[in-house]
Write a structure and sequence with these properties.
By secondary structure, this protein is of the alpha+beta class. It has one domain (10-79): 2-Layer Sandwich (60s Ribosomal Protein L30, Chain: A), CATH 3.30.1330. 36% of the residues lie in helices and 24% in strands. It is built from three helices and four strands. Helix 1 (14-22) runs parallel beside helix 2 (37-49). It is globular and about 30 Å long. The model has no long low-confidence stretch (mean pLDDT 95).
């Protein structure tokens, strides 16, 4: 994983990402390990259920930077 998601079609944020995974529109998911468990764990479970591979970033800041935003991100998905 090159750590740079900016060049790919992505969604950021747990609500949008969850909707994309549930609809079968996510090719892969990215999760920050320091995201709050009540946010992170249901999203991870949904990804497992829908068989969407998850890659982890250590921090929300790292994931946000990889997505090209100036704030942290708990999760992101690359769209199909």
């Amino acid at each position: 994983m090159d750590g740079d998601l900016k060049s790919q079609p992505i969604l950021i944020g747990v609500r949008q990402c969850s909707e994309a995974v549930a609809a079968g529109k996510a090719a892969s998911a990215y999760v920050a390990q320091d995201a709050d468990a009540p946010v992170r764990e249901p999203f991870e479970a949904l990804c497992r259920e829908k068989q969407v591979p998850v890659t982890y970033f250590d921090t929300k800041q790292q994931l946000g930077r990889a997505c090209g935003i100036d704030v942290g991100a708990a999760c992101a998905v690359v769209l199909i």
